[in-house]
Amino acid sequence: MGSTTLRIALLAAGLAAGFSGQALAQGASPAQPAKPEMRENCPGLVASRSPVFRRASFDPALLQLAALAADQVRITFVGHATFLLESPQLVRIATDYNDYIRPNVLPDIITMNHAHSTHYTDRPDPRIPHVLRGWAGQERPARIDMTFKDVRVRNVPTNIRTWGGGETERHGNSIFIFEIANLCIAHLGHLHHTLTQAQLDEMGRVDVVMVPVDGSYTLDLDGMIEVLHALKAPLLIPMHYFSGHSLDRFLTRMRQEWEIEVLEIPSTVISKTTLPIKPKILVMPGR
């Protein structure tokens, strides 16, 4: 594939997206056993060669949409905790969809968590076909497992701290798992505690993790690193870091064990065969 074609693919994705504590006691309901097909679709680290992260400079002349191959997923960081995921059949998913940061394209699927107003909205665009709320109330967790075209979306409920930080709200957050093009992508949402073995088992082996790294509003840095060690994903994408200081603090700690790559634009195309052999942190510009 020529360099111009690669630039077209990533430029189109970027334009479409708009460029626009301590661990808590779980107390959650026992997780349901993972489905056998999830185990097959999320086999974990099977890469055999180094990744190729494709990037492009901004060039208004290249206003074309390049199709994805059958084994590819396009990931664009819109900002905060919102990513736009695009499947080979052009299913578009926006994570932690809210009133402040949104992609400029209409998603087919949105996921939300209600820890803070920047992670959900009560007023989603009525044209969005699939609105997935990652909470249902303290008496019962949200349970989501849906398939749309070539995408499967499921969730693993977790607890959150209340706004004042003094109490635990059961089932207030969801880790959303996206199974696309033989990849298993996990968005940790507004995670406030380390994960139980039951939750890890329900997630299965994941290939890509979108991880909040602020170290205060979500899980503290030590706890988050513990979660990442437990997940053993080959590719980590930081989010929810507010400032360069909090991102740098996370990267300084992680640089001791993980390779770090910084992209020039907030978009990349990945596949199972381009996953890194050694775990890598992929930093996209955003906030």
From TrEMBL:
Give the signal sequence positions.
1-25
> Which of UniProt's keywords are assigned here?
Signal
Instruction: Cite the SUPFAM superfamilies for this sequence.
Output: Metallo-hydrolase/oxidoreductase
Q: Which Pfam families match?
A: Lactamase_B_3
Q: InterPro entries per the record?
A: RibonucZ/Hydroxyglut_hydro
Q: Would you say which domain of life the source belongs to?
A: Bacteria
Q: What is this protein called?
A: L-ascorbate metabolism protein UlaG, beta-lactamase superfamily
